[in-house]
Amino acid sequence: MDTYSVIPIRFTLNGDKVSIEAGAHETALTVIRERLSLKGTKEGCGMGECGACTILVDGKSVNACLMAAPQLEGRTVMTVEGLGREGKLHPLQEAFLEHHGVQCGFCTPGLLMSAQSLILETPRPTHKQVVEAISGNLCRCTGYQQIVDAIQYGADKTGGEE
Amino acid sequence: MKSNNGMIGKSIPRIGAIERLLGKPLFSADMELDHPLVLKVLPSDRHHARILDIDTAEAARVEGVVEIFTAEDIPRNHLTGIINKDRPLLAKNKVRSKGDAVALVAALNIHAAETAAKKIHVVYEDLPSVHDPEEALKNHASKVHEKGNLLFTRKIKKGNPEKAFEACAVVVEKTYRTSFLEHTYLEPDAGAGYLDPDGNLVIIASTQNPHYDHSELVSLLGVAPEKVRIVQAATGGGFGSKLDLNVQGFIGLALYHLKRPVMCTFTREETYRMTAKRHPLKMVFKTGADENGHLMAMTAKMICDTGAYGSYGLAVASRAPVHATGPYEIDHVDVECRCVYTNNPFAGAMRGFGVPQAAFAHESQMDLLAEALGMDPLEIRRVNALKAGHKTATGQLLNGSVGIDQCLEAVKPHYENALKTWLHGETDFAKQRGVGLGAMWYGIGNTGVQNPSTAHIEMDGEGRITLYTGCADIGQGSTTVLSQIAAAVLGISPDMLCMVVGDTAFTSNAGATSASRQTYISGNAVKNAAEKLADVLLTEGVDLLKRPKTDLMLENGFVVYKKDPDHRMPFSKIAARAAKRGIPLRWQGYFDPETVPLDPETGEGVPYATYAFACHVALVTVDVLTGEVTVHKIIAAHDVGRAIHPASVEGQIRGGAAMGVGFALMEEYDPSTTRSLKDYHIPTAMDMPEIIPIIIESSEPTGPFGAKGVGEPALIPTAPAVINGITNAVSARIYHLPANLERVLEASIQSGKFTMKEVA
Ligand code: FES
Ligand code: FES
Fold first, then answer.
1. Which residues of B touch A93 (CB under 8 A)?
2. Which of B20, B188, B474 lies closest to A108 in CB terms?
3. Cβ contact, residue pair A131, B20, below 8 Å
4. Cβ(A143) to ligand 2 under 6 A?
5. Which residue from B118, B188, B383, B680 has the fewest beta carbons nearer than 10 Å?
6. Yes or no: is domain B17-23+452-591 CATH 3.30.365.10?
7. Which residues of B touch A130 (CB under 8 A)?
8. Contact B675/A at CB under 8 A
9. Residue B686 touches partner A, C-beta closer than 8 Å
10. Residue A138 near ligand 2, beta carbon < 6 Å
11. In whole angstroms, what is the distance from residue B468 CA to residue B505 CA?
12. Complete DSSP assignment for B636-676
């Protein structure tokens, strides 16, 4: 369909092995959203400024809009769809629900990924660490406080489970 | 009133929150259609120019291009606009700003669409452009629109301020300015469209007003109303900008002609270039008080730049002067606000419609008067605060909920404590602390015009209840609140209700999600519908339970005899019987707040049926050597009438305060340089202080369960409180928002706070 060079890419996405072909010019975000039809990851700016496209690559938060698709090769990727599911929310998701950290929800998937990345590294983050970890995720609705509270609370619960 | 079932005032889990946490809801750009065409708009690159020719031949040859549309292709009316129709969907004959849409490309993929858009050759003849509203009003100014550049003037007159000023102990006159702002909702505008099996146009869009979109599409395309269906997708914020027709018209036009699925997703840059901004205002305020601080008179001349198109300019130019007194009683008032066309980007609705700008001025004036009189800023506000029985500048007698004094009372301990201890806790000489106050009032609903809402409620033969509302939930949580209101009336739990929201094929008009009106107005419409159904259930219950109606109530899906709760009848039985007997179980609710149109010369009238009130305290630290301002804490007291869902009210207050911090300190859209999020900064988690919301419930007799609204009020007091805090810190005042580094540094230099001596 297009004339760009196409590269085969294999990686693990939310626990499943995937193997696709993507254009060298494509971003990880278009691969996830358009090729793999996982629409939970959002595009708010396409230039690394908003964090709506945040995913986890080998446990680290990454702006998918800035990552070239071929860089996914061999990596382990998680999107919001891999965090929890209906009836069994991840403790972070539970915490967002309880602390009313969701308004329009457009920033939510990216924030959950940044939070998860933080917790993987720092199971009991301080308030300051939470704020820093999500400083690349813009939210225009909430003023962040209910989100920060949710992440701290969710971290506690996650830690408690482990 | 039937029992409210404990549902009012309860922060139940938000409808849709779990889905959002799982990444499931489909926002417009997430729609999966069968091989959709993608749409790309070619915007004008001229401020003001005649279009001599649009040559699409080369663009049409780009592989993958399906069609290119220009104004000629619009079947019926090419002008759009909710208040005044002046904005072409696609430019006809001339462009008036750099964001005007000139042509629309439909292509198989985005690459083809973008390539083609670049190959459309437009021949322009430049016209002189005007970018300052005061210039635009001069005789020689280039005319943005044929009818002239003055779009609208609103006057408010009461008493004789000039005479009253003479008797004042102190009079303060200052000029205030604000900037263009970008809403910067996280979700860029987007929509999708397809034809249903009957050939009807279905448009799914990110919108604050699906029923307005519907009427606009019918007008553009000249089709029967039933041929168009607008469905509100999950919407990632709006804050006023998604009240305009941003992508819906393009989708409709392409669908109409091509009859194939289409998608239109703006990039962030397109959203910045082609959607509304907040009106910049220039405001000259003169305010006088007697020696006790009683406000005696005020005058204001305001001018607002609506850019190339009106959008909600008239609403802004009405609201700003109506609210210019602030939440205070003043006997002598003369305010005039002019709304002017320029060749700047068009300005429209943005959270607060001009009131945030006006509050910056009136609250700065309050502090200046307090200073001149040697009064405490809180005290001068309390002396003048509106009370029930007072008259506003439009002559409206306030007789319902007026909670400003309670807000001032509520912040008092925090304010006094901050002055006493926090203010003096800094040891770094370069860091000056300040405490500032900002108060506000805000009329709920549209200004002096009818703005009804309708809703339907329906019980099926098995007793299941569905609520239909056209009210767009854009993230603020109206769907949850409306479900609570209906559930409270019907004695059920909200999760027993099926909600059908924002779909013109099924819902009726609830008006715009704007003007903080949905809880009050749509809440009342829903309550009205639910009460009609409740009445039928109770009446039917009389027959079945053989008890008088007054002894019956609705509880947990049953009609219950109050004196013996075991004597009851499930809704399902009542519904089945009613259905058999042909008793209607679908009811419409309606509510339109009682207003009186404002007199064009004096502004006399009743602009709103009720008002929300608030006061914020901001604790700020100013680095006098860099101009950097850190907001340490905001205490935010809001009279919302009744908090139906307190966590959502607090969410609005916190989110509003964040937007207020942005308005105060960092946000400025410069039409010539702002292109993307790289050039426009909104507060991040690092910029946000602790916010302490205080909910005041001064019950509004006409509100659903006493509720008013909070969406816009949340933002309004923040900037004045921050600015007054900065003034308190550096003893110099900023008259132009935002108070960015340069302006704060300049202020600190002027006040002598910045001195090299101390640095050394
Ligand atoms: S879309 Fe990737 S950071 Fe905004
Ligand atoms: S909830 Fe709307 S942007 Fe964060």
1. 18, 21-22
2. B20
3. no
4. no
5. B118
6. yes
7. 685
8. no
9. yes
10. no
11. 11
12. EEEE-S--SSHHHHHHHHHHHHHHHHHHHHT----TTT--S
Q: Terminal CA-to-CA distance of chain A, rounded, Å?
A: 48
The CATH-assigned architecture of domain B277-446+599-750 is 2-Layer Sandwich (3.30)
Query: Which residues does chain A have within 8 Å of residue B648's beta carbon, measured at their own beta carbons?
Result: 100
Q: Does the CB of A132 have a partner CB in chain B at under 8 Å?
A: yes
State the distance from the centre of ligand 1 to the C-alpha of B326, rounded, in angstroms: 40
- Gap from CA of B268 to ligand 1 centroid (Å): 10
| CATH no. of A3-82 | 3.10.20.30
Q: Where are the domains of chain A?
A: 3-82, 91-157
**What pLDDT, in 10s, does the model give residues B683-707?**
999 999 999 999 999 999 999 999 9
For B546, phi and psi rounded to 5 degrees? 55, 45
The domain ranges of chain B are 17-23+452-591, 31-127+184-274, 277-446+599-750
Reported CATH class of domain B31-127+184-274:
alpha beta
User: How far is residue B498's CA from residue B242's CA, in Å, rounded to a whole number?
Assistant: 26
pTM of the model: 0.97
Which whole number is the average pLDDT over B641-668?
98
Atom of ligand 1 nearest to the CA of A136: 3
Q: Do domains B17-23+452-591 and B277-446+599-750 have the same CATH topology?
A: yes
Continuous segment of H or E residues that includes residue A96 = helix A91-98
Neighbours of B606 (CB within 10 A): 18
**Is the distance from CB of B521 to CB of B592 less than 8 angstroms?**
yes
User: Considering only residues 268 to 307 of chain B, which have any Cβ-Cβ distance to chain A shorter than 8 Å?
Assistant: 268
- Return the CATH fold of A91-157: DNA polymerase; domain 1 (1.10.150)
- Ligand 2, atom nearest to A141 Cα: 2
Q: A18 is written with which tokens?
A: 């995937």
Among the partner-chain residues B109, B236, B691, the one whose CB lies closest to the CB of A106 is: B236
Find the mean pLDDT for residues B176-182. 98
Q: What is the per-residue pLDDT across B199-243, written as a single tens digit (0 to 9) for each?
A: 999 999 999 999 999 999 999 999 999 999 999 999 999 999 999
Q: According to the 3-state scheme, what is the secondary structure of A106-132?
A: CCHHHHHHHHHHHHHHCCCCCHHHHHH
ipTM value: 0.96
Helix (H, G, I), strand (E, B) or coil at B185: coil
Q: Quick check: helix, strand or coil at residue B266?
A: coil
Residue of A141, A144, A147, A152 to mutate, interface with B, max B Cβ within 10 Å:
A141
What are the tokens at B154? 């609103």
